[in-house]
Write a structure and sequence with these properties.
about 170 residues; Rossmann fold; 4-stranded parallel sheet; 4 strands
Length: about 170
């Protein structure tokens, strides 16, 4: 959020249904895709600017699904994208279908920690290899799923990639 805001992008950060103080109930990634679409609609209505989508963990998996199919979204960023089933103590494992990335021709950045238990390096590399171009994978050494102690490196990775996007756009 801070990295994108540093470029002057308006930023919308929200909790999905049933998370934190938000109303509703978790919908296993189905209704949450609609939540992202609603957020994209609001951003478009409010600012009328091209959109760069960024999501973390579950938000990355379901958000990129909505963003890849939306013409207003120019690029997508997945941080801590889960590629193995995630099980919470109170629910059955969440399995993420990320096959839509094979058709997503938007610029894509994936950032993950080398110690991310939900995004083991080999599985993440396989996912990124299967995704359509253009794409980039950045692994932050020593970082866990929440980038504890490594948020500066995460921000630098996003800022560097966005700078590259903006300079490529200026050259075009």
């Amino acid at each position: 959020m801070k990295a994108l805001n540093s470029f002057g992008f308006p930023v919308l950060r929200f909790n999905f249904r049933g998370t934190g103080l938000s109303q509703g109930e978790h919908d296993r990634g189905i209704g949450e895709v609609d939540d992202v679409r609603t957020a994209l609609d609001w951003l478009d209505t409010e600012f009328h600017l091209p959109i760069v989508f960024a999501g973390f963990s579950f938000g990355s998996a379901v958000g990129m699904r909505a963003a890849c199919g939306d013409a207003r979204v120019r690029a997508v960023i997945g941080v801590g994208t889960p590629v193995v089933p995630v099980a919470e103590a109170t629910e059955e494992p969440r399995i993420y279908a990320l096959d839509y990335l094979r058709e997503c021709a938007k610029p894509k950045l994936f950032v993950s920690g080398s110690r991310d238990r939900f995004g083991p390096r080999q599985k993440l590399e396989e996912l990124v290899a299967s995704a359509a171009e253009p794409k980039k994978l950045v692994i932050i050494e020593g970082a866990d799923h929440f980038f504890e102690g490594r948020l500066r490196e995460l921000r630098e990775a996003v800022e560097s990639w966005v700078r590259g996007l903006l300079s490529a756009k200026e050259k075009a």
